[in-house]
């Protein structure tokens, strides 16, 4: 896509080429770049002034687009007569060069085709699309109209039966379908819950076991009590054991001497 800068560059290039041709006609073999740039800008200002005057004459005539007469008046105001153009053309008629016009290249871009959703009546839509074409007011490069179901008003219930028995059968069938879908949904949720519980149990087994310090202290106390009880029973047994008779040994030295 061409921008304003591209257009300005192209216009400057064309004007510089025209200035170089005019300098060659005047007998110059070469031209400096600075002089070429200055003369090109002067030519641009001159053409812009000429076109601005032409547009003003068109506005004075209550027209939005200039015509041939507006161009002539702007040239005459600038001091240029049409006869001078005739003399210039007659002078260079023999040495003119025909420059072929640029040909438009065929566009290689492919038009994107959007696949619209088809309606319930696909056969009807296909026949309508094949028989209908773009209206006369639509340009040929415009895309085709979308499918009719995208803008056509259709009832919510298509071909709904009127028989009460058939309506009850359809309602019961729909209720069974809904019930089956709910069962499937609940079974899927139960499976997910079971998997979640299993994963939590595995994670609990891998975790550090919980230690109850109160039970450990009580266990230590029971062991300590049992140990002290065993020691007391042993000492009691030692106290009730028979002692040697030392009655004879309790005699005094006086008794021994008497005997």
UniProtKB/TrEMBL annotation:
Residues 8-84 form the Bromodomain associated domain. Residues 99-114 have a biased composition (Basic and acidic residues). Pfam families: Bromo_TP (PF07524), TAF8_C (PF10406). One of its GO terms (cellular component) is transcription factor TFIID complex. Gene3D superfamilies: Histone, subunit A (1.10.20.10). The keyword rRNA-binding does not apply. Transmembrane segments: none annotated. One of its GO terms (molecular function) is protein heterodimerization activity. Residues 119-128 have a biased composition (Acidic residues). One of its GO terms (biological process) is transcription initiation at RNA polymerase II promoter. The keyword RNA-binding does not apply. Its main location: nucleus. Belongs to the TAF8 family. This is Transcription initiation factor TFIID subunit 8. It comes from Lichtheimia corymbifera JMRC:FSU:9682. The lineage of its organism: Eukaryota, Fungi, Fungi incertae sedis, Mucoromycota, Mucoromycotina.
